[in-house]
Specification:
Blueprint (H helix, E strand, L loop, with lengths): L1 E6 L5 E7 L6 E6 L2 H6 L2 E3 L5 E8 L3 E4 L7 E5 L7 E6 L2 E7 L11 E6 L6 H11 L3 E8 L5
Parallel strand pairs: 3-10, 5-11
Antiparallel strand pairs: 1-2, 2-5, 3-4, 4-9, 6-7, 7-8, 8-9
Length: 148
């Protein structure tokens, strides 16, 4: 396994992403939805990966949903970065990570392709996520909120 570290710009949201392959290239999907296009959402996931997220201050994390309301974009309210996205399917949390938030991966290691899921049936979308998104996610929170 290869450990990839990442974070939002200010560091409020940090993560460790255990990539199950030692291959040099990591496949990346440039999402074509309107939200990701505006935020340069470029994601990766693997069905055998593990994601551990550490949030310093939960009150500085917003969650945004739109469209089918089946994915939650975790946005740092301080710096505006979206480090990861989750989707709860059949009571289980799956996720993808934004490669633009990686700390220890060179851009040359990312193999990019454009993804367009417009018109995909909801059931097909959820099944695709179950097959391809990260199934092992742990989110820990240091502080629930500001005390001011």
């Amino acid at each position: 396994m290869r450990q990839i570290e990442g974070r939002c710009h200010c560091g409020n949201i940090q993560f460790k992403f255990l990539w199950p392959s030692l291959e040099a290239e990591i496949p990346v999907r440039v999402c074509g939805c309107s939200f990701c296009t505006r935020h340069n959402g470029t994601y990766t996931s693997h069905a055998n990966a593990r994601l551990t997220v550490e949030i310093a201050d939960k009150s500085l994390v917003n969650k945004y949903v739109f469209g089918t309301k089946t994915a939650e974009f975790h946005i740092c309210a301080r710096c505006g970065v979206v480090p990861f996205v989750t989707s709860k399917i059949d009571g289980h949390e799956y996720g993808v990570v934004n490669v633009n938030t990686f700390e220890n991966v060179r851009a040359l290691q990312l193999r990019s392709s454009v993804s367009d899921f417009e018109g995909e049936a909801l059931a097909d979308r959820l099944q695709r996520r179950k097959r391809t998104w990260i199934p092992d996610i742990t989110i820990s929170i240091a502080r629930e909120g500001r005390s001011d």
